Amino acid sequence: MIDGKTRLCGLIGRPVEHTLSPAIHNTLAADLGQNLVYVPMLVGSDIGSAVNGAYALNVLGLNVTVPYKNDVIPFLKDIDSLAAKIGAVNTLVRIDGGYKGYNTDILGLKRALDCENIALTGKTIVIIGAGGAARAVSYLCASEGASRIYILNRTSDKALELKKDVCAAFPDIHVTAGALSTAGEIPEDDIIALQCTSVGLFPHVNESPVSGSIFFRKICFAFDLIYRPDETMFLGEVRRAGGRTSNGLKMLLYQGIASYELWNDVSVDEAEASKIYTILRELVRGQ
Ligand code: ATR
User: Fold this and answer.
1) CATH number of 107-247
2) Which ligand 1 atom sits closest to the C-alpha of 130?
3) CA 224 – ligand 1 centroid, Å
4) 87-98 pLDDT, tens per residue?
5) Strand, helix or coil for residue 225
6) What is the SS3 string spanning 152-172?
7) For strand 61-64 and strand 91-95, is the pairing parallel, antiparallel, or unpaired?
């Protein structure tokens, strides 16, 4: 029940109405017996006023979504070092005098990969895309010590730009940038492929960012950040060529759990995580 001691958390962004995060956080609060509510808050344009206003209103924590993941940074009191390198923040944790920014998208991806027993250290990784999501994923791969990272994008100049930034932050990591059409020329086998574009997202379910059987046969595991549909055309190709696959729903789940853990200084066990995963699957199917 909401009473005088209820703490408030929420999501700020534009738009926010399709978010699944309230289901994650309000279920966690109920199950863990914490007096907390989580609500979406549409921020039209003034992200600075939203952050300062939230602090003044004693808001415990916020998630940040499109289009503010970069723009929110100047309004933070502090920022986690990996989030600062990535240049994107999706979680604000209340500290003395303001908020500290984190990137739990990346913590969520790491935990989702851990669940699949996938380690990035020493591996050849192909990142498909060079937008905001691919940027965060590239920094995770570099920080985990991948042996080689290929960044492939429709616009190869953007892949090159991202390569430069990753190499500046992690000078020891080998990064190659190129066009999507060069996927078949990658010499390594046992590739981990991380699909970070919006290609294949519902309702465009018959689209894939890459084609060519040579590439698909070399993939041992593929992760698609998309979770609607359950299996994108890209993941279907990987599966049919013999690779293991996972969609992005566990990343969504674990980024939420990581935010909740930061706000409340608790740790959420796998039984609770799996309960929330089932709820999310139902919600996605009903959307
Ligand atoms: P996000 O924050 O979700 O990463 P973004 O920064 O707009 O969104 O990046 C979108 C990514 O999807 C980019 O890599 C984009 O490729 P371009 O840089 O060439 O635009 C990629 N993308 C979007 N539509 C695509 C399509 N039809 N084919 C291939 N790549 C596409």
Assistant:
1) 3.40.50.720
2) 14
3) 13
4) 999 999 999 999
5) coil
6) EECCHHHHHHHHHHHHHHCCC
7) antiparallel
- In the chain, what are the domain boundaries? 7-102+250-286, 107-247
Question: What pLDDT is attached to residue 181?
Answer: 95
User: At a CB cut-off of 8 Å and minimum separation 6, what does 80 contact?
Assistant: 100, 101, 102, 103
Tell me the whole-structure pTM to 2 decimals: 0.95
Is residue 243 predicted with pLDDT exceeding 90?
yes
For the stretch 2-38, pLDDT in tens is 999 999 999 999 999 999 999 999 999 999 999 999 9
Asked whether the domain spanning 107-247 has the same topology as the one spanning 7-102+250-286, the reply is yes
The closest of 100, 62, 108 to 81, measured between CA atoms, is 100
Ligand 1 center–CA 37 separation, angstroms? 34
CB 187 within 8 A of CB 132: no
**DSSP character for 74?**
G
What mean pLDDT value characterizes the chain?
A: 97
Tell me, yes or no, if 100 is annotated catalytic: no
